[in-house]
Fold:
Amino acid sequence: MFLVGLTGGIASGKSTVAAVLRELGCAVVDADVIARQVVQPGFLAHQRIVCAFGPEILMESGEINREALGSIVFSQPEKRQLLNSFTHPEIQKEMLKQTLKYFVLGYRYVILDIPLLFETNTLTRFMKHTVLVYCDPPTQLSRLMRRNGLTQAEAEARIAAQLPLDQKAKMAGHIIDNSGSEEATRSQVLKLHSLLEDSLDFIWVRLVAATAVVGLGGLVYFLLRHLVS
Ligand code: ADP
Structure:
């Protein structure tokens, strides 16, 4: 099995591309969904956040008020770091769990949908391929304003908080340019899908796993024979 990192910028079209890949039958692990899951009541990250930021960060339902927490960490980098130290390990554990599930199910590759793949940069070394969903800056701005109902200044501030797409493009192994129509994007996704389907990179991991299983089986057999005799 091998891993594919899918990333983009805000409103560049990553969700649109991920939806096409899912429709084609790919295994996609969504870091955003997991990030929301691990801060739900009952999870370790939730407990730690409440301990560090106080119960005033909670809504009546016991869930974390993401907007309130967001505005605290937006202006205070050390608090953002603290929050990340609670959430990132839990997110990565859950991503690993879901990836292993797909491995056991026999998927040859898993796509990890990670919005800040290049910003955090801790996971890129595990990716066989990295894919950036690109969109030209004016189109990105207008799609973000339309989707989120933002003013131009608000949308520009959100885009400015991320690494520019042109910079991410230099770091990506593959680029899907989503500046045009959805049809044009779809045909690029189909090409990427064929490339991933035709790749034989999964064989190495299968071979190593099979060798490990056979080796372990042999060891157990050897030990049993010695214990019995
Ligand atoms: P992201 O997941 O990167 O934030 P989305 O996939 O949600 O971005 O796309 C942002 C917005 O732009 C959405 O409203 C989506 O419907 C729209 N959109 C995405 N791709 C296209 C396209 N090729 N043409 C027109 N609108 C698009």
The first helix runs from residue 14 to 23. Residues 204-229 form one domain. The mean pLDDT is 93.
